[in-house]
Each structure stands twice: as structure tokens, then as C-alpha cells.
Amino acid sequence: MNPTRTSTAEPQQVASPHAPVKSEPARWAKVVVGLPDRIVMLLFWTALVVAVCVLCSQFRPFVVLPLLVVVVVATWRLTPAAITVTRAHLVSSFAALGTVVVWLGVNIPFASQFITVWRDPGFLTLEGLWLSGHASPNIPVGAARAVDLGFQDVTAATGAYEMVGGSLQVQGAKLLPGMLGLAGWAGGEHAVMRANLLIGAVGLLAVFALARRVVRPAFSLVPVVALALSMPMVVFSRAAYTEPLALALVFGGLTMAWSAIETRSSPRYLVAGAMIGATALVRIDGAASVVGLVVGIGLTAAAAVPPRTRRRQLVAVGLVAGGALSMVLLGYLDLRLYSEGYLFDHYQQFTSLIAVLVVAVVGVVVLGMLYRLDPARRWVLAHKPRLANAAAAAVVVVAVFLASRPLWMVNHHVPAHSGYSAHVASLQEKAGMVLDPTRSYDESSLSWHAWYYGWPMVVLAVIGLAVVLHRVVAKRDPRLALVFGVVVAPSLLYLWVVNITPDQIWAMRRFLPVTIPGFLLAAAVTLDALWSRRSSWAAPAAAVVGAVVVALFPALTWGPAAVSIEQDGRLPEAHTVCDAVGDDPVVYVHAGEAPPYLATLRTMCDVQVIQALTTLSTADLVALKEAWGDQEVKLVTFDPYNVPWPDGVVPDPLRTTTITAWHERLQRIPYRAGRTTSRLWVATIGADGALTPVDPDEVTSGTAAP
User: Fold this and answer.
1) Is the dihedral of CA 62, 63, 64, 65 positive or negative?
2) Strand runs labelled E in 145-252
3) Closest by Cα among 89, 403, 107, 69 to 233
4) Residues 486-544: pLDDT tens digits?
5) In this structure, are residues 272 and 253 in contact, taking their beta carbons and an 8 Å threshold?
């Protein structure tokens, strides 16, 4: 049950005996105001059930759905403390819910069709499609393994898919693919393609749920509207990116932690830590937010002068850390079982974050338990005003330093002679820039936020963070301390070194889970503070103007790409391929300008497939045909000049498709999408190695026509 204690930040207001009794709010009003919190919690419990079932290779409807019902019923009352129903909160809740519904309606028709392994959305979507029909994330390759071992320049694995034993393991954690697979049970492949938009919608509500506890209800809508209109949120929700789910979990966890501090509720502390820790089930860097959470709560605990208060808050740190570490370890187990290669490649990064997390927990506990620090605590208490001013000034200094870097710094963190540096060089060449393949453009990271959200938002966010830290030091408010810690810890990490290929809009992935919504919330804090200064009309007027600018500026950054479907055309093309190959094993020729298609064939067509990495001769085709045994074998290619056709005559393609893709840019916002032509050939390999093209009239889906 929800505890009835009042906030520790504000004393309980006791009505005088003669005060009029206020009427109880209508039940429907309570439901509306509580709905954002409830929806976010439902996402968390669903994510937890999905993660456990995928981890056990029991991702089946008759296992997941009953377990989900049991968990939801058992935790129904375990939500953040209810918001007091006022007219302002009711109106803002209606507005937030309405914004989310409209946002979904606008974006669902433009859901991406990422089903080739070109960057993360490709393999995440394919893994979601796989899990919608299979209990385990491991993908068996069958007889393709033997063919793989018997030939050079032939493989049954591909980018982001590593061969482990007789199965393919897809890189990364499995929570998001599991959530996509869950949607696939209800609505098939189209639901899988659109499911991340539903997760993004919950993320918007999670930001609102926290914002209305930090600022006035009206200003809590500012970050929600700005985020909903912004290119990063829309793009990374239309396709299967992990960031919207991480955002929802982080801000949902912050709301629960805020409520836990107010009510001193141990279960809420545990759940808050678990929600933020669950980002490790989504992304390998999820522990970064947990570090900020522990430091934010722990330092305020260590600074408390009364020993009883300090002990109570240290217990809260332990509960939060326990919930978070359990999820982080679950995320490690997920990677260890189902993505060994990915964990090995990122082992240093993962273990470093875990080490920092452990040091943070131990450090704040030790600081809190050392009674010898009592004189220092009393000194800090006595000098709160000056220390608060110094802390706020430090925030501004750090922001100015980060913003000034393009004037005097050029970073080179892209690995030399890698696919990443080759990609950077290609983009530089297309843009007519000086070739510098290892340049990472980290020095522009703060400027990127201004491109998408405007410099007014960045300035207001810096002031808001300074205001929050000032209040943390001056008032020792642990609620604001945890918000500041969770926002600042991963933000500083990635603002300093982005650690991603620096093209737009791809690089903004690093900032969507925490930094972008955190900055928007900080900007709302500044606006709220301006509104509070009623000594003259100027400050409230500036707050209104600032709110409009912050909320609506992101809409001005869009170009024609806003109504483009990323990878449009790939889905019907895949249907054509699957109809053409039937149940036969496939040799995919991945040479020349061919797209990465092995995983697409294996997942969507559910056939055994190997890919050839070089041009094939007739003798090669004969050998590959014999390796598959006594069965018909199909060949798939997007470049007809890498295989020997009868009499040297290239037949007409089975399908010609126009594919839409956003332009990638360095140091500029994407503006429009480009179109390329994809031509597909499917043929049957004869015993003598002769290729017989599949007749378009034999393709039953009706999608084979150009």
C-alpha cells in the first residue's frame, strides 16, 4: 500500500478547526491525474517480465502473459505517491495525455522499415520479429554451419550476428527486441515496426510525470512538447532504437525515487533503483545513470549533520543501490548468455562502469559513516549560502568551457583504419570537407543541442542546472540532488567524448535517454523561477516567451524528411524474396553494392542461409549446391554481375524497388531523405551450376512487380 507519510521536504499543513472542508475530487479526475504514473509503471513491470522470460528462453505467450498479469496485480498499489488533484494538475494531465495521443497518430504512418543490418535498428527490428515467433533469442543456423566450415569466403554469420556453437547471437541486450516481439504477438510484423513509437509515447509521459513534481503544472508541459516535436525523439522512436525505452525507465525511476524520498517508503526506493538499473537491460552503458542516482542521494546523506537522519538516508542509498545492482547484474547475465561477443568487445567499458558504481556506493556509505567528518559537516552547514553560490557558478563555468571547445579544440577519438573512420572520411568527402577520418567532433557536442533545440534552451538549461544545484546545497533537498546527479553524470560523460560515429542525426542517440530531456526539464526550472518573480511584469513575461520558444523551436528544425519513411520499400521487397525462395536454403551473394541481407533472409524467411563474400563461378555454384545435399537451393543477389548467368545474359530483375534513406551529415542537421534503386534477382541453382531465374508470375504475394 502507498504510505501516508507526507513529504520530508515540506512540513504537513494542518487545517485550522474553522477551515472549510474541501470536497473530495471526483474519481475520474484522480484517474486522469494518476494515469501518466500508472502507464510508466506498467511499462516497467512489462519490461521486467519480458526480460526474465527472454533470459530463460521461455518467451512464449502462455508464459509471459499470465506472469505479467500476476506481477501487475501484485504491484498495482506500488506507484509513486498520488499527485494532489487540482485544476492545474487536471488540465496539464489532459494536455500531456492528449499530446501523446496526437504524437502517436502523426508518427505511426511514418514508422521505419529497418530490416537490413545497417546500424542498430536493423538487427533490433529483426530480432523483435524473430522473438515474435520464437522462445529464445538464439537463432539456429542448421546445415548452413557445415557449409560455412567447408568453404572459404563463405559465412553463415554477418555484421552484429556472431556464430556461437550452431546459433547466431545478435549483439546487445534483449529487452527492446523482447518488447517488440510482445507487440508482434498482437499485431504481427507491422506492430513490431511501430512498437517503439508506443514506448516513445510512454517516455514522453515519464518526462511529464517527473516535471510536474519539479515545476508548476503549466511549465511541466514545456519539456514534453519540445521533446515530442524534436527530431531526435521522433526519429529514434519511429525505428527500433533503444534510447526511448531507456528514457522511459530513467525518468520513471526518478519519479519513483522522488516519491520515495517524500514518503520514506522502502519499497519505492527499491523500485526506483530497479527502474533506473533496468536501463542495463536495454543498453550496456545503463550503469552510468545509476552512478548519478547513488551519488545524488548519497552525498546529501553524507552531508547530513544529525546522525539519525544520516543513517536513515544511508539506508535509502542501500535500497536504491540494491535494486539498481540487481538489474545491472541481470543485464550482464543477459549479455553473457546471448551476446558473448558483444560483451567481450565492450568488456572494458562495462566493467569500468560497474567499478565506478561500486566505488560510488562504497564512497558515499563510508563518508556517511565517518563521525570524524562531523566538524566538516557543521562547517558546510554554516557556509551553505557561499557554497551554494560557488556550486551554481561552477555549473556555468563548466558549460562555458564545453560550449567554447569548437573555438580551440579538435578531437580525434574515431579509431584509425576502421569502418567508423572510413565512414567519416566518406561523409567528409561528400561534403567537400578536409579529410580527417579519425575526427570525432566531440568538441561540438553542446552545439548539437542548440541545432535541434535552440541556444535559448541551452542557456536556460544551464541556468536551471545551476539553480537546482544551488537549491541542493542551500536547502539540502535530496529530491533535487538525485535529479541533478542522474542528469549530469551521463551527460558529462558523453558531452566530453560522444563515443559514437559523429554523423547527424545518429550521434544524438547518446543524448536522448538522459541529457536532452534533462536539459529541457532544467530549462523549465528556469522558466518556473522567472514566473515566481512577481516583483515586476518583466520576469513572468520572459517566462512565457521562453516557454513558447523552448517548446516550439524544435518544430522549426524539420525539413522534407519529416514525412519520409526511413528504409521505405524494404518490407515489400523482403516479402518478395521470401515468397521466391520458399523453404529452400539460400546462397546470398554479398559482394559489390549488395546490402547486408543475410540476417533479413534468415529471420523474415526463416530459411537456412549462407552468404558468399566474393564473386561466384559456375564451379563454386556446383560445389555449394552439392554441400546442401539433395535439395533445391536458391541464390539471391542484388548485383547480377557477381554470378554466372546462362550465356552471359543478365535476366530482368525479379523486383525493382525505390528505397528511402535519410541523408547523413557531419556538422549539419539532416534535411531531406534520399532515394536509391534496389534491384533483386532470385534464381534456382541447378546440379550443373546453371542459374534459372525465378519467374515473377510464380511469386504468390503479388509484391514482385516493379
Assistant:
1) positive
2) 154-155, 161-164, 167-170
3) 107
4) 999 999 999 999 999 999 999 999 999 999 999 999 999 999 999 998 778 899 999 99
5) yes
